[in-house]
Amino acid sequence: MPNQNRPLGAQMSMALKARGVDVIFGIPGVHNIELYRGIEQAGITHVLARHEQGAGFMADGYARATGKPGVAYVITGPGLCNVMTPLGQAYSDSVPILVIASCLEREHRSMGRGRLHEMRDQEAAAATVTDWARTAPDAKAAYGLIDKALAEFACARPRSKYIQVPIDVLGASCAPAPAPLPAPKRPQASTAQVVQVAGMLMAAKRPLFIFGGGAKAASAAARLLMDQAGAASFCTYAGRGIIQSDHPLNFGPTLPRNDSVGNIASADLVIAIGTELAEVDLWRDHLGNTAPLVRVDIDPHALTDWHRSEVGVLGDAGAFVDGLATALAGHQPAKGWTAEEVAKARAKSVAEVDADRPGIVRIIASMQDCLPADTTFYSDMTQFAYVGKEVYNLNAPNLWHHPTGFGTLGYALPAAIGGKIGLGAAPVVAMLGDYGFHYTMQELGVAVELGLSLPIILWDNGKLKEIEDGMLSAQIAPNAVVARNPDFCKLAEAFGAAAVRPETLTDLQSVLVQALKTKGPTLIHVTPEIR
After folding, report:
1. Which distant-in-sequence residues (6+ apart) come within 8 Å of 357 by Cβ?
2. CA–CA dist 82, 226 (Å, integer)
3. Distance of alpha carbon 277 from its chain centroid, rounded?
């Protein structure tokens, strides 16, 4: 059939392909089958998830790894409900994912007639966990909403978007989408703002930078700027690797540690770039600064929150840091910070991590010794990952992805699958806990089906240990923190995956190295008893 006057569902896949979308994650159903009419002809790869939650997390992992939007197709009603957790996670962590769903015909929505997959207000439900949710009443609106989503991903804070199309509209013939327009440019700081902040930096004796995930593209210029200014730095978990871990003035991802307050208070200028300084970044209400605070962000909301800033810069982080580095060329670096004080603070932080969650630091260190430096990690809400994201050294940005804001369980496995699909031959590792694995373990079948070389480190302490520790700390008798687990290795083998239970750290290293070479996923079952 020629491309003219095809059903809208088919035309939408063609439009997405023309706009750079190569992979779609999803599950076909009776209401959204028209979306599947044109996928193959468009040249798009479709990845069949085992649950819409898995499809959403795969889209998230793909987007984080590649920087391209992650796209998912889901059905009316339960399809949307199942993907809402990934939508919420992507919203909180600034991940560009677009979910496209079917919905009931306009005349049947909200009527309570017992229609298949009926919801009282599907659009309103989606709006609670996305930047926006819209219904496309016709082809023109559908094309416009796709372009709106992709344009905002390019030029604004990238957060999840949702488009729904009525079943009858999906099946109606229409003309193809117009040619895609050039992506809009991101807002830029003014020259006057660059000059102002550069002047503040040159006058400072103990300047301090805080880098968040929004500054990932500024890594090269940020490293130069640190040395030009003689500045120290902290990073959020999402900002790890922007400044190399072994930089002598890098405090690392230690913002939540109590000692960071004193270190921040000792700075005479604090510049926070690409971070909203959220609760999950600090775990306290106040940053701790007594000196002027400069905020640089693409999101105007971050410039007007409770962290009062003397200077707020709305603009692209990369361009702003480039401008500062140019302005500071030839500047004599400040000498207020010493490598010794930073090294002492970092060593104390690692000791505290080891004391808080004993026995895990040594395992993370053994992984660091054998995995390639460019390994990308996807971690879940588990104590093993909490330790890892504090002590595993990263020397490049965008290598560790964690469900930081929304804080869902079940993220790591499907997200790692999406990331591996996006990165191809590059090494990817999933890290998850025994309880969180129950949420999305079925997606192991996708990794087997696609033959993905994916080590899956399953930390099994037999319980919800973090919650048990919290109950004990609150003097609550531990309750509902132990669940019966299956034989995880046999379960993985039933899916067709390899499975290993290493007994020593040397065994773990060998297994990890081999798993990166094995066609298909390898479940690596690790317990606190590993020697």
Report:
1. 383, 386, 387
2. 44
3. 16
Nearest to 236 by CA among 93, 97, 418, 130: 93
Side chain identity at residue 338, one-letter code:
T
Position 1 scores a pLDDT of: 44
CA distance 66 to 108: 39
Q: pLDDT per residue over 192-242, tens digit each? A: 999 999 999 999 999 999 999 999 999 999 999 999 999 999 999 999 999
The sign of the dihedral angle between the CA atoms of 246, 250, 256, 259 is positive
Statement: 357-526 belongs to CATH 3.30.230.10: no
Contacts of residue 220, Cβ cutoff 8 Å, sequence gap at least 6: none
Measure the CA–CA gap between 446 and 51, rounded to whole angstroms. Answer: 11
The token duo for 143 is 């094309």
Helices 191-203 and 317-327, interaxial angle, to 10°?
A: 60
| 191-344 CATH choice from 2.10.70.10, 4.10.280.10, 3.30.530.20, 3.40.50.1220 | 3.40.50.1220
Q: For residue 111, what pLDDT is reported?
A: 61
413 and 443 in contact (C-beta within 8 Å)?
Answer: yes
Regions of the chain short of the pLDDT cut 50:
1-2
Residue 121's Cβ-count burial label (10 Å; 0-12, 13-18, 19+) is exposed
* Reported pTM: 0.94
